[in-house]
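U., I forgot to send this yesterday:
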Amino acid sequence: MTLGIVAALHEEIADLLAEMAPGAHVESIGMREYHVGKLHGHDCVVVLARVGKVAAAATTAALIHRFAVDELVFTGVAGGLAHGLSVGDIVVADTLVQHDMDASPLFPRFEIPLLGRDAFASTPSLRDALATAARDWLADEMAAQVPVALRTEWRMTAPRVHIGQIASGDQFVSSAGEVSRLRDALPHTLAVEMEGAAVAQVCHEYGVPFAVMRTLSDSADDTAHVDFPRFLREVASHYSHGVLRRFLTQRRA
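Result:
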């Protein structure tokens, strides 16, 4: 059983790559480096997809065709879309939709042409295992990994795990107006990012189990650009590494 682990930004998998490095080998395909080895007893292929739906889809297809991964997990950051979410919360996708897909009037808005669906469901067993690992990591390890001064600065009072819909599109959502339009169009969506739904479509078409986890860095509004690189480096990187390490060790137990 081989697990593919994918992220859009280097910081989101840097610590996993460091753990894997001693016994791993690297294969370069399509301007991407696929790190093949073991993590916590599991055969894994870890890769930086880069940003956007095309990059994510191409990387996912290579993982399936070249490395024959049996399942796939995508980790990274997202902007919170629904009311009541906070910086530092984690969203694990139950379904994913492409918010920039609009082939109307030939097809309904958001529907993927010729597939007859507008959303793709993640694999329940992977989704639930990832959510459990996230809850356990927040409860047991997050405070030690993210200092109290940073948590205070980012107003991370009591981070929670949410399971719900994530929307993807080739757009960095950073204005209150766009957030409002997306909330109106997709009222059940919790978070917005740029890759997950593309991964979901490819995995659906090839029958590969998958899950997507996102750490909320902002509320996807006019403050979405503030200190994003710092949040990625000082907070989100710990989330991705800690939760995925927990996910792998708990699956082995």
